[in-house]
TrEMBL record, chain A:
It comes from Malaciobacter marinus. The keyword Signal applies. Keywords: Signal. It comes from the Bacteria. Residues 1-18 form the signal peptide. This is Phosphonate transport system substrate-binding protein.
TrEMBL record, chain B:
It is an enzyme of class 2 (transferase). It comes from Malaciobacter marinus. Keywords: Coiled coil, Kinase, Membrane, Phosphoprotein, Transferase, Transmembrane, Transmembrane helix. Residues 178-230 form the HAMP domain. This is histidine kinase. Its EC number is 2.7.13.3. SUPFAM superfamilies: ATPase domain of HSP90 chaperone/DNA topoisomerase II/histidine kinase (SSF55874), HAMP domain-like (SSF158472), Homodimeric domain of signal transducing histidine kinase (SSF47384). One of its GO terms (cellular component) is membrane. Its main location: membrane. It holds the Pfam family HAMP.
Length: 273, 497
């Protein structure tokens, strides 16, 4: 009995000593400014630190293009949280597997301070998007195109790294319209500003941001699935939903992203041409 | 070599001032270190906030080009020696001014520690955190040259100021000390002159408030000294005169004393002669009668040989008696008698022997009450005998003068505590109350010039007071004799044992 106890103690000590100190990296698409991204995902970071007993780092990128290129390489991040079009690329090019998404669908919003901006004759309209490859930007551009607002004719696009920056641009009259996702609209625009802006376009809910992972950095896909499932049921997960206003989590399978080919192609073109 | 008081004062003051200035410089350097240390920490905190703000996003975004740019721009701050940004695994992300990323500097905690001052650099680090997430760390080297330079400047400036201050102080102190000493020298000269007897000297110390006060006080003192010396001289003169007077008075007193002694002796001799006369009268009468009887018997031719023989024997007997009487008086009159331990009653008996004939001739009875035991005392017996004779003679004289029918002198001896008391009282009516206090004064007498000199009681009082340390007093008291009450003077001779 004593020998057994001694053996177990030695095993425990070895286990403790050899505990992995290499941090887990989470890559989050730069849909907001870096500070907002880091702040709104602290619950996830802390939960995963507890779950894996390892340090967790949240990383992002200067823009969606940079983020997508890193995601697609499959070496930078252990866990990715990104928009559906980029998730498909990460799945196909980076070898990641979609695990979980939010219940609330991702609608695209176009905002303007002028309610009748689309009826004006003053062209080109200056529209600020998040990134050429961000899901809301691509979606909004497609809708505007369908409305007859072709790029370089009636509209001119510029891009900013973060939604909160785009809001400031609109409020300072440096743009006629801005594009953003519905969660960002709900989360980042305060009441006072909401009263000053008008929703020009709101799309039907599209798939929301998607969590993707792969066997990497000594964590298996299964472990990631368990971890994210646990997070979705945890206090930290609930708090995260309160902050992001994304209602709830739901599991997702690789097949669920199959109907996004059109937007994915557009993304690919913009990224690699 | 003797250093003057002024120089001592100047040197002591300058030494104290130098010490104070040194302490001040040390304190200032210390204060400078504290201030600069605080400022360094404040600056570091400011840079910490700025660097954190600037580096959080690029680190999270892995935007290394931006990090490089931030470091290069920040390096423009003159006090920053180097900057190294590392991630959480201490992998070097970017560095400026530091080449060896694998060998990062050891973090120091005191900006002005020995190490920091030695390599003129304070090595520190700033963690880059946001929402409790640590993203990396910035190693930072702050130059400490500014502190070393400021310290050197401060020391040089302080030394220059201190030297100027010391020079000014020395100049001021020397001037002041000379001014003070000048007045002290004046004071010394004037004091010396006064000490040598020139009391008219006065001092002039200028018109400043302090010296004026000193001048006034000194001059007042000089005036007082002059006045007091003058008074002293006058007093001396007076004293001299008084002394001369006293001397002459003493000489006079001495002469009077001698005269008094002589008179006393003469009085005693007179008394003695009187007493001898009384003593001799009866035997001389007897001799005369016997010789007359012998002569008559011869004329009548009745003389027989037997008569001659008997008369011769009788005359011889009386002659012997007379000779003994002379011996007794000679003994009494002995010069330079010796002190002895003697019985006070024997002494009184001796006096009685001398005056007994005189008392008997005047029909005066002596009523003596003896003490229970013998009373002894130390002293010259003859002197006390003389006192008793004087008092007895006095009583005899007054009793005769008052012509009292039944004359008596009552004598008693007794001991009271540590004193021997002898009382002698007559029944002559007492001394008049108006003169009772003067009876012991010299030359005071109530007797006729032919009888008294006024020396007897004075000498008696002197003997009792000075030679026996005793007391003699007189009171008028009642006296009972032969069932009759009289009044009479009662002398108390009180002698300490």
């Amino acid at each position: 009995m004593k020998i057994k106890l001694l053996f177990l103690s030695i095993l425990f000590a070895i286990n403790c000593l050899s505990a992995e100190k290499n941090p887990i990296t989470i890559g989050i698409a730069p849909h907001s400014s870096t500070r907002v991204i880091l702040e709104s995902h602290q619950d996830l970071r802390l939960f995963l630190e507890k779950f894996f007993h390892r340090p967790v780092e949240i990383l992002t990128a200067k823009n969606f293009s940079e983020f997508t290129k890193r995601s697609d390489k499959g070496t930078f991040y252990d866990l990715i949280l990104t928009s559906p079009n980029l998730a498909v690329l990460a799945q196909r090019l980076g070898g990641y597997t979609p695990i979980m998404t939010y219940k609330k669908g991702l609608s695209t919003i176009i905002l303007s301070k002028d309610k009748n901006i689309l009826k004006k004759d003053k062209f080109p309209l200056h529209v600020v998007g998040l990134d050429p490859v961000s899901f809301p930007t691509l979606d909004a551009q497609e809708w505007l195109s369908k409305q007859g607002f072709k790029e370089k004719e009636k509209v001119e696009y510029t891009y900013t790294s973060a939604t909160d920056s785009a809001i400031s641009i609109l409020m300072n009259n440096h743009a006629d319209m801005i594009i953003m996702s519905l969660p960002n609209y709900l989360k980042l625009i305060n009441k006072k500003n909401k009263a000053l802006v008008h929703v020009i376009y709101k799309s039907e809910p599209k798939p929301s941001r998607i969590y993707l992972a792969k066997d990497k950095n000594k964590i298996t896909l299964k472990q990631w699935q368990k971890a994210l499932d646990a997070f979705s049921k945890s206090v930290e997960g609930k708090h995260h939903l309160e902050i992001t206003k994304l209602e709830g989590f739901k599991k997702i399978s690789p097949e669920d992203l199959d109907n996004l080919d059109e937007i994915v192609d557009k993304t690919m073109k913009r990224l690699y041409n | 070599m003797k250093i003057s008081l002024a120089w001592k004062w100047v040197i002591a003051s300058l030494l104290i001032e130098s010490l104070m200035l040194t302490l001040m410089v040390i304190k200032n350097v210390d204060q400078l270190k504290n201030n600069l240390s605080t400022q360094t920490y404040i600056r570091l905190d400011e840079q910490k906030i700025l660097l954190q703000s600037a580096l959080v996003a690029p680190i999270a975004q892995m935007d290394y080009a931006t990090i490089d740019a931030i470091l290069k721009e920040t390096k423009a701050i003159s006090t920053i020696d180097y900057m190294v940004v590392v991630d959480n695994q201490n992998n070097c992300i970017s560095s400026v001014g530091w080449s060896d990323c694998k060998n990062l500097p050891t973090v120091e905690f005191d900006p002005f520690s020995e190490n920091s001052l030695e390599d003129e650099r304070f090595d520190t680090s700033i963690p880059i955190t946001l929402f409790s997430q640590t993203l990396g760390k910035v190693y930072l080297g702050l130059s400490t040259k500014f502190y070393i330079q400021a310290k050197e400047e401060m020391i040089i400036r302080s030394i220059i100021i201190a030297l100027i201050e010391l020079l000014l102080s020395a100049f001021l102190l020397i001037t002041v000390s000379k001014w003070i000493i000048k007045n002290l020298v004046k004071l010394t000269h004037t004091a010396n002159a006064i000490a040598l007897g020139d009391y008219s000297q006065r001092i002039d110390l200028g018109d400043s408030k302090e010296t004026l006060q000193l001048q006034e006080s000194f001059n007042l003192m000089a005036i007082n000294i002059e006045k007091n010396i003058e008074n002293l001289k006058l007093s001396n003169e007076k004293e001299k005169k008084l002394f001369e007077k006293l001397k002459s008075q003493l000489e006079k007193n001495y002469e009077q004393d001698l005269l008094l002694k002589h008179q006393t002796r003469m009085a005693i001799i007179g008394e003695m002669l009187n007493n001898i006369a009384h003593q001799w009268r009866q035997p001389l009468n007897a001799i005369t009668i016997q010789l007359s009887s012998l002569k008559l018997k011869k004329e009548l031719d009745l003389l027989e040989d037997k008569d001659i023989s008997e008369t011769a024997d009788s005359v011889m007997k009386y002659a012997n008696y007379l000779s003994n009487t002379i011996d007794d008086f000679r003994n009494f009159m002995k010069v330079n008698p010796q002190k002895e331990h003697f019985s006070i009653q024997n002494c009184f008996n001796k006096a009685v022997e001398i005056v007994s004939a005189s008392l008997k001739n005047n029909d005066i009875n002596l009523d003596i009450t003896k003490s229970k035991g013998e009373l002894f005392i130390d002293g010259i017996m003859n002197e006390l005998t003389q006192v008793f004779i004087n008092i007895l003679n006095n009583s005899k004289d007054i009793l005769n003068e008052k012509n009292i029918e039944h004359k008596v002198i009552q004598i008693s001896f007794y001991k009271q505590n540590d004193k021997l008391i002898v009382t002698i009282q007559d029944n002559a009516g007492g001394v008049e109350e108006s003169i009772i206090d003067k009876v012991f004064d010299p030359y005071f007498t109530t007797k006729h010039k032919s009888q008294g000199t006024g020396i007897g009681l004075y000498m008696s009082s002197k003997i009792i007071h000075e030679h026996f340390s005793g007391e003699i007093i007189v009171k008028n008291e009642d006296i009972e004799y032969e069932k009759r009450v009289y009044k009479g003077a009662k002398f108390y001779i009180i002698l300490p044992i």
